[in-house]
Design brief:
It is a single chain. By secondary structure, this protein is α/β, with parallel strands linked by helices. Among the domains are: about 15-215 and about 270-345, ABC transporter transmembrane region fold; about 450-520, Rossmann fold (3-Layer(aba) Sandwich). The chain has helices at about 15-25, 30-45, 50-60, 65-75, 75-80, 80-130, 135-140, 140-160, 165-185, 185-190, 195-235, 235-240, 245-270, 270-295, 300-345, 405-410, 435-440, 455-460, 470-475, 480-485, 505-520, 535-550, 585-590, 590-600, 600-605, 615-620, and strands at about 365-370, 380-390, 395, 420-425, 425-430, 440-445, 455, 495, 520-525, 550-555, 570-575, 575-580. The strands form 3 sheets. The chain has a 6-stranded mixed beta sheet, sandwiched between helices. A 4-stranded antiparallel beta sheet has the order 2-1-4-5, covered by helices on one side. Strands 7-8 form a two-stranded antiparallel ribbon. Strand 4 (about 420-425) and strand 5 (about 425-430) form a beta hairpin. The structure holds adenosine-5'-diphosphate and magnesium ion.
Amino acid sequence: MPKKEQSQAPVDRSGMSRLVRDLLRPYRGWLVIIFVAMLVETAMSLAGPWPLKIVLDSVIGHHPMPAWAARLLGPGVADHKMGLAALAAGLIIVIAVLENAASYVDNYYTESVGQYVANDLRLRVYHHLDRLSLGYYDKQQTGNLLSTITTDITTIQNFASAATLGILVDILTIIGMLGLMFWLNFDFTLIAVAVTPFLLLFVSRFKKAVKKATHEVRHRQSDIVAVVQEGLESMRVVKAYGRETLEEQHLQQASQAAVDAALKARRIKSALSPVVAVVVSLCTGFVLYRGSYLILHDAMTIGALTVFLSYLSKFFKPVQDLAKMTNSIAQATVAVERVQTILAADEMIPEKPDAREPRGVQGEITFDKVAFSYKPDSPVLKEITFKIEPGQLVGFVGATGGGKSTVASLIPRFYDATQGRVLIDGTDVKDFKLKALRNQIGCVLQDTVLFAGTIAENIAYGRPGATREEVVAAAKLANADEFISRMPKGYDSEVGERGMTLSGGQRQRIGIARAIIRNSPILILDEPTAALDTESEKVVMEALERLMKGRTAIAIAHRLSTIKDADKIVVFKDGFVHEQGTHDELLGKNGLYAELYRIQFPTESGVPPAPAAAAPAAKA
Ligand SMILES: Nc1ncnc2c1ncn2[C@@H]1O[C@H](COP(=O)(O)OP(=O)(O)O)[C@@H](O)[C@H]1O
Ligand SMILES: [Mg+2]
């Protein structure tokens, strides 16, 4: 269900037009070609009715050609009627050929610009998303982002290829026609097109309403994507709980809202064309009536009236197009705004300009009075202080929600501490180059995500460029080689969404191989065996022990047996370090750890767990 809306930060206009200019800059050459082609098109469409005028007035009728035209053609053609007719016929063909050749060029290059602008924009948005911190993703619905990077960018593409320069042609056509009409008959034109300003005013008033409605439509559509995406992603849970109907209801609500919004937008938009059409017919009727009168009184030729009528019909088409364009403009503006909202997001983990490359990291980790909160005013960590010596294995224990994963995520700077310092080898993590810092840290989490690709590619994800030998060696150390070799295609078996499914234990071993091949001095193991049965836990634990050898390792454990032999155990409770020490020291203290331990191993300690203390253990 849509729990969070995409943030609707006000988008500044200058940023938007800068973005558009930026995007178009590489294609200036094409734009010039398009522009020239459009000029040709416009000129030809203006010339269109003139051959007919020549025939009506000078071949059939008895009006002489204008002096300049007669001079241009020479006496031979100008005085010979069928010669003129042939000339008019030839002109029709020339005009059509030029107009359509130009239209071909124009179509091809506008589409090219549209396609490439969309291509650039897609890459740019994704590049930006890649750089945003996890804090950003905590607040965003993936579906909304998906919808922007697909639908909104396609809208922009369509607009760029269909509309941008079309507007220019429309305006040029209108200006050209007005000029020619005035030249033919000044006052008549004035009356005929007197309504145009009112029409344009009406259209522009319209724009606002259409844009608002369009915004709503896009919003609802992207909600649909979000709902569907969430539902499909969680299909296993949905099925397990039999909540298909509920999910369908969510979609139904979102879908209905989209339908309502679309219909509302359509109601507004549909009013436009009829209004324009009626106004056009009023003008045409008037021109026909008034023109007949003028011809009867010899104030105008039949050819001129023909040109007039033909222009009038064409004249209102660009006006109408411009009116329809408000719709596309509204959609494109909304799309650009949504893209701009993503590009304007600046929740990045900052890198200092003088940040250093970490060299020869030993792996000493210090937390110095660290405090942190995901959201302002609800602190998750308070005054966390502990120290891990290089090469030590340290276990983090405590109830779920105690802040163990959060503490670990501060080391690779997935988030930044709000107070205090996190140090590696005595240097604040903020002083390191971000990518290089993360290179020093390997992670194995509760669930290993496999990407679409082969097993070998998935292992090499830990260090791009790893050779096949290195991949196999890592898999062997991770206890994974044995099951991979049994697969029909071995290391080249496809996994991920469309490939074969691996069991949890197998996935974890791939995850461990990934961490082994990364070969980083610091390791974070966030409950890597939590989801496994005892059998696969044993194999995975064995692999983990090999992985941890010679590295500083933080092992977040739900089963205390896995960290019993750790050099140090840190117990978290409610965002504080509750106690720390070795297993024996902590048992001796008889505090929270001792209590947790007794709950998990009642027989060893010989003390039966108190019923009241069972609750945290069940959650841990
Ligand atoms: N991405 C997040 N956004 C907001 N709150 C979070 C996020 N991740 C964890 N929390 C909250 O922070 C607290 C500590 O969580 P976590 O570090 O995952 O605990 P643990 O790993 O010990 O179970 C919990 O109250 C949890 O709800
Ligand atoms: Mg956790």
